Amino acid sequence: MAESEKIKVLYLDDEANNLIGFKALLRFDYNVFCAKKANEAFEILEKHPDIRVIFCDQRMPEKTGVEFFEEIRSTNPHPIRILITAFSDIEAVIGAINKGHVFRYVKKPWLDVDIITAIEEANKFYLAHSMLSQKNEELERAYSELDKFAYSVSHDIRGPLVGISGGINLALATNDINEVKEILKMMNKSVEKLDSFILSMHDYYSLERGELKITNINFQEIVQEIADVYNIYAKSANIKFTIDIEQNESFWNDEVSIKLIINNLLSNAFKYQIANNENKIVNLNIKVYKGEATIIVEDNGYGIEEKYQKEIFNLFFRAHHHATGSGFGLFNLKSALTKLNGKITVDSEVNKGAKFTIIIPHK
User: Fold this and answer.
1) Fewest CB within a 10 Å sphere: which of 41, 97, 126, 246?
2) Any idea where the Response regulatory domain is (predicted)?
3) C-alpha span between 333 and 3 (Å, rounded)
């Protein structure tokens, strides 16, 4: 077994002969660390936080094994603790269990089989406890995400509905056809916002629940389909929209995820343009080379403050108020990239624009 794969075990005992015998017994099958004093044990634990099992003799000159285990509970809660004692004093054992949260104890003089059995049982408990801790963390994140999801859904759906309802009331109170038309335009924006939010939620659940469907990707066809929509918007908003695609080899991947990534990048690039900028630009560059697709979307819009650049992929996070958004887009994009084993980097400066670079490997 490779050294890196061996279970790490620490033994604290003030008797050198015990340490030598312990290491001689386990040196081939385990990664063993020995310490004669508590401070030495703390140094070893600091250097090797992945130690899984700790043995400690009860009768130590500076402090008892129970006291040592009680002390490390706060600094090193994960290793499984085993007390070694030459005494059958039931009070010491009870103290070890209550104060030091000891997994078990082994009597001195110990037998080889007792030590090995204790390590194997402790390791099983360590793995089970680690898995449980991981599941608890995942559950806490899921509950937190659910809370934010419930709030965002109620806020982002109710907002457009209130706008539509208010528009209806205004329209009913006026006979001016021009005013009615203005109200209808406002209501249409609310409908578009609501539609965008619903589509984002659909993308979210498609990514969370869906499976990848690998096909041969033709970026020219995919981009043309998406660009038809953005070309119209570019003309109406006076934005110079350029596309450059270089693909001379096959690229197999999930088409739905690829479309979602490109669409979300372009949506943000168009959405966060500076309104009074006379030279608004959005550039899309795609290159497939040696089994990797590099997608770059660049704009000269509002940009993203450096302090927010790591948070923009969080669910419901909005970096600024210049344009309304659901907070789903970049989260969905990052989720899609995770499924595709892709990477993303952000290069942005406030009021100078943003550049998103994505690298996706061939499946």
Assistant:
1) 246
2) 8-123
3) 39
> Mean of the pLDDT values across residues 106-114?
86
CA angle 319, 154, 179 (to 5 degrees): 85
d(CA 34, CA 43): 11
The alpha carbon torsion through 232, 237, 239, 245 (nearest 10 deg) reads -20
Whether domain 212-363 has CATH 1.20.120.1200:
no
> So what's the pLDDT on residue 171?
84
Matching residue, tokens 């006379």: 278
Look at residue 109 and give its three-state secondary structure: coil
Name the 3-class secondary structure at 84.
strand
To the question of pTM greater than 0.85 for the whole model, the response is no
Extents of the domains making up the chain: 3-110, 212-363
Cβ neighbours of 257 (radius 10 Å): 24
Provide the Cα torsion 33, 37, 41, 46; round to 10°: -130
Any idea which architecture 3-110 has in CATH?
Answer: 3-Layer(aba) Sandwich (3.40)
Q: Rounded to the nearest 5°, which phi and psi values hold at 293? A: -105, 125
| Mean predicted confidence (pLDDT) in 343-358 | 91
